[in-house]
Amino acid sequence: MVLINPFVDTILWWAIFFVVMFVAIKVFDLVTPYKLSQETKEKNGALGAVLGGLLIGIGIIIYNAMVHSDGLVNALIYSALGFVLMLASYFLYDLITPEKISQEIDDHNLLVGYKIAGLFIAVALVVSGAIT
User: Which of 7, 26, 29, 113 has the most CB atoms around it within 10 Å of its CB?
Assistant: First the structure.
């Protein structure tokens, strides 16, 4: 989808990604028990993996929304929907698994952090596959 011209579009989509990324991180910080500033000071690699998966997932969704949507508004709607579904998957996974995800990540359990990162990326791929 070309909005203006390829060069301006590149800058526009880059800016959109940064805004969506910033909002996603803030929302994640608000709805999960982690405090990102504190966990960053503690160098919590498990939470770093989770956030990495979240950002990769958002990038995957935005990419597919750019390519397959018929407008900027629809692309943003798909991006928001994908983020909401990633968060819903996080909480659902926490409910159905025996470990307490938030406690494991707070304890710097990298295995759990990688599992959640993988979950976010998998959800993003599914959402992206549905974008037509």
Answer: 113
Q: pTM for this structure? A: 0.87
- The answer to whether position 90 is within a domain reads yes
Token pair listed for 27:
């929302």
- Candidates 57, 50, 64, 82; CA nearest to 13 is 64
Specify if 72 maps to a domain.
Answer: yes
Two structure tokens written together for 82: 């994908």
Give the range of the structural domain holding residue 98, as residue numbers without chain letter: 6-130
Specify the DSSP class assigned to residue 42.
Answer: T
